[in-house]
C-alpha cells in the first residue's frame, strides 16, 4: 500500500472537523460570532478531555449526542446567556457533522438534551449611566475641550484626533451604530444630501442608518481637516475609511480604525471628562443603549425604536421600555394614595 493510500485511510479526528466547521461559520457569520463559536468548541474539547476523549486523536465517529449532558453541566458556571450561545454553537457543530455524514447523530436527541439541561436567560434591563453620557456629549460637542497633553511627536495628529473623536462619539450616540459597524464605515457609504448611510450590519443585513445634523457636521469638520492626508493616499476618496487611525503605527497612511481603537477613544474621553471612576462603566455599546432609550423617550413608539436600532427581534427593544423606579413610585402613590384619601 502506498503512503498516499495510508494517508487517505487515516481517521478524521474531532478537532479536524471542528476546524472545518469554524471555517464554514466564518464564511456565513460575523467575525465576532466565529470567535465566540471557536471559544465554545474549545470549551467542548475541555469537556471531552474530562470524559477521556482526546479530541486531537479521537475519530469523529466516536462523537455521540450523549456528550451534550456533561457539556451542559460544565456550562453552569457560565452566565446563562453564554451557556445558551455555547450550546447553540455545539448544536450547529453536531448538525454539521450529521450533514457531512461523518457520524451517526440523532438530531432530535441533541435538541431534547439541550432544551432539558440548559437554563433560560432571564430578562436583563440594559444598565447604563444616561445622565453621565449626556454630560460627556455636552463636553464633546465643543471640540476645543478634547485637546489632550501629548508628546511633541504626536502634535501633528492632535487636531485630527480631537475632531475624529468628537465625530465618532456623536455618531455612536446619534445613530445607534455598533462599534464595529462605525469602524467599517467608508466615505463612499455616506449620502450627504440625505444625511444617511447604507451599511451592512449584524447578520449581514443591509440597512439605512440616519445621521443627525450635529453628527454630520462633526464628520464634515473632521474630513475637512483630513483632506490633505486623504488626497495624498493615492486611493479613491469613496474607498477611504470614514474614521481613520491617527497614531504612530498609521503614520501618513489612511488606515481604518479597529473596534479596539473605538473602545480606547471612549475610555480616553470618559476618563478626561468624567473621571477614572467611570472608565469601564461607559463603553461604546452604552451609546447604543443611549440611542434606543432616547428614541423611546422621544416617541413612545416601540416599532420605530426597533427599526432605527435594527433589532431583528422586538423583544430586544422591549427591554428598554421598563419604567424607572421614580416613575413606578409616582404611579403607585398617585393610584393608591388617592384611593386611600377618597375612602
What's the structural blueprint in terms of helices and strands?
Elements: H1 3-9, H2 14-28, H3 31-50, H4 68-74, H5 80-99, H6 107-117, H7 130-140, H8 155-175, H9 179-184, E1 190-191, E2 196-200, E3 206-210, H10 213-225, H11 227-231, H12 259-274, H13 284-299, H14 302-309, H15 314-318, H16 325-342
How would you describe the overall organization of this protein?
By secondary structure, the chain is mostly helical. It folds into two domains: 9-117, Tyrosine recombinase, N-terminal domain (DNA polymerase, domain 1, Orthogonal Bundle); 130-325, hpI Integrase, Chain A (Orthogonal Bundle), CATH 1.10.443. The protein contains 16 helices and three strands. The protein has helices at residues 3-9, 14-28, 31-50, 68-74, 80-99, 107-117, 130-140, 155-175, 179-184, 213-225, 227-231, 259-274, 284-299, 302-309, 314-318, 325-342; strands at residues 190-191, 196-200, 206-210. The chain has a three-stranded antiparallel β-sheet, with no helix packed on it. β1 (190-191) and β2 (196-200) form a beta hairpin. The chain is globular, with a radius of gyration of 26 Å. The relative contact order is 0.08. The model is unreliable at 1-8 (pLDDT under 50).
Please give the CATH class of the largest domain. Mainly Alpha
Low-confidence parts: 1-8
Distance between the termini: 98 Å
Number of strands: 3
CATH architecture of the largest domain: Orthogonal Bundle
**Helix- and strand-based class?**
mainly alpha
Measured on Cα atoms, how large is the radius of gyration? 26 Å
Secondary-structure element string? HHHHHHHHHEEEHHHHHHH
Specify the biggest β-sheet. 3 strands, antiparallel
User: Which superfamily, in CATH terms, is the homologous superfamily of the largest domain?
Assistant: Intergrase catalytic core
Number of distinct helices: 16
β-strand amount: under 5%
Q: Mean of the pLDDT scores?
A: 84
How many domains in all? 2
- Kindly report the CATH topology of the largest domain: hpI Integrase, Chain A
Q: Order of strands in the sheet with the most strands?
A: 1-2-3
Shape: globular
Amino acid at each position: 500500500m502506498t503512503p498516499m493510500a495510508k494517508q487517505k485511510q487515516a481517521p478524521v479526528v474531532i478537532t479536524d472537523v471542528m476546524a472545518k466547521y469554524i471555517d464554514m461559520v466564518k464564511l456565513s457569520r460575523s467575525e465576532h460570532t466565529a470567535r465566540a463559536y471557536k471559544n465554545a468548541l474549545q470549551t467542548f474539547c475541555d469537556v471531552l478531555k474530562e470524559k477521556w476523549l482526546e479530541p486531537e486523536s479521537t475519530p469523529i465517529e466516536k462523537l455521540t449526542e450523549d456528550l451534550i449532558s456533561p457539556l451542559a453541566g460544565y456550562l453552569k458556571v457560565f452566565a446563562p446567556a453564554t451557556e445558551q450561545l455555547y450550546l447553540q454553537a455545539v448544536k450547529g457543530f453536531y448538525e454539521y457533522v450529521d450533514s457531512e455524514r461523518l457520524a451517526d447523530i440523532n438530531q432530535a436527541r441533541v435538541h431534547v438534551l439541550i432544551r432539558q439541561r440548559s437554563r433560560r436567560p432571564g430578562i436583563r434591563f440594559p444598565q447604563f449611566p444616561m445622565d453621565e453620557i449626556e454630560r460627556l456629549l455636552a463636553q464633546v460637542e465643543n471640540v476645543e475641550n478634547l485637546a489632550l497633553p501629548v508628546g511633541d511627536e504626536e502634535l501633528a495628529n492632535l487636531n485630527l484626533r480631537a475632531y475624529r473623536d468628537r465625530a465618532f462619539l456623536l455618531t455612536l450616540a446619534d445613530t445607534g451604530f455598533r462599534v464595529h459597524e462605525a469602524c467599517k464605515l467608508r466615505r463612499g457609504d455616506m449620502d450627504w444630501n440625505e444625511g444617511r448611510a447604507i451599511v451592512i450590519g449584524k447578520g449581514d443585513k443591509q440597512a439605512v442608518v440616519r445621521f443627525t445634523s450635529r453628527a454630520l457636521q462633526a464628520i464634515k469638520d473632521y474630513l475637512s481637516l483630513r483632506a490633505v492626508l486623504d488626497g495624498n493616499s493615492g486611493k479613491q476618496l469613496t474607498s477611504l475609511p470614514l474614521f481613520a487611525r491617527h497614531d504612530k503605527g498609521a503614520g501618513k497612511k489612511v488606515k481604518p480604525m479597529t473596534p479596539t481603537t473605538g473602545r480606547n477613544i471612549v475610555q480616553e474621553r470618559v476618563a478626561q471628562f468624567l473621571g477614572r471612576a467611570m472608565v469601564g462603566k461607559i463603553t461604546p455599546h452604552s451609546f447604543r443603549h443611549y440611542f434606543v432609550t432616547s428614541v423611546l423617550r422621544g416617541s413612545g413608539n416601540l416599532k420605530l425604536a426597533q427599526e432605527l436600532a435594527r433589532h431583528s427581534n422586538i423583544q430586544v427593544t422591549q427591554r428598554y421600555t421598563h419604567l424607572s423606579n421614580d416613575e413606578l413610585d409616582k404611579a403607585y402613590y398617585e393610584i393608591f394614595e388617592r384611593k386611600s384619601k377618597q375612602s
